[in-house]
Specification:
Oligomer: single chain
Strand content: 5-15%
Order of helices and strands: HEHHEEEEEE
Number of domains: 1
Shape: globular
């Protein structure tokens, strides 16, 4: 076989290998970013409860959606509280509509965009009932929960932008499992033992 042909085959082989390595590195970076975003949300929830970010005079968590951790009106009643990075908050797969009136209320929607190939959403409880309930406050909106919250991170394009799902709740423990085709693949927090449902705890 002529040397030029062999050289061409070698270049094509190495080029394909580099593409595969590059794609794998991108997926790993996207998944790391999704984990970081969930940890940031846990921190935001803890601050929310500690400082009463929605101004309802109750120590509760935000459970209405994902982006509310940024969009909920702050102490001035006009600007977002900004407890979560807006780039992360904009990746909400199911954001609530803006509201008017006194706090607690939601400011304008963010321009929708995935975050490093991932999207996020608030989860319901394992029994299918919403974690978002209307607390004993002056509004009638089911946005809060005094004890619990839960979030999901899933790839915008399974297999291309990420290969794993991630979930977290108020204990701060992140769990992962392979992402099946389609999204969002999870709406409720997994029932029973996480391991029995195929979830793996991240250290």
């Amino acid at each position: 076989m002529p040397l030029a042909i062999l050289a061409g085959i070698l270049v094509a082989f190495l080029g394909g290998a580099l593409v595969r390595v590059g794609h794998g590195a991108m997926i790993a970076a996207n998944e790391d970013a999704a984990i970081h975003a969930l940890r940031a949300a846990v921190d935001a929830e803890r601050r929310w409860k500690a400082v009463d970010a929605d101004g309802n005079a109750l120590p509760d968590f935000w459970t209405g959606d994902w982006s509310g951790l940024f969009r909920a009106a702050g102490p001035d009643g006009r600007e977002p509280s900004g407890l979560l990075n807006p780039e992360i908050a904009a990746a909400d797969d199911a954001p609530l509509a803006p509201t008017t009136g006194p706090r607690p209320r939601l400011t304008d929607l963010l321009p929708p965009a995935s975050y490093r190939g991932y999207r996020f959403r608030a989860l319901r409880n394992a029994d299918g009932h919403p974690l978002a309930v209307d607390g004993p406050d002056d509004d009638d909106r089911p946005w809060e929960n005094p004890r619990a919250f839960a979030f999901l991170a899933f790839p915008d394009s399974p297999g291309r932008s990420g290969k794993r799902l991630f979930v977290v709740r108020e204990d701060g423990v992140i769990w992962s499992r392979p992402a099946p085709p389609g999204a969002p693949p999870v709406e409720d927090w997994p029932a029973g033992r996480m391991e029995d449902a195929g979830w793996k705890r991240l250290d």
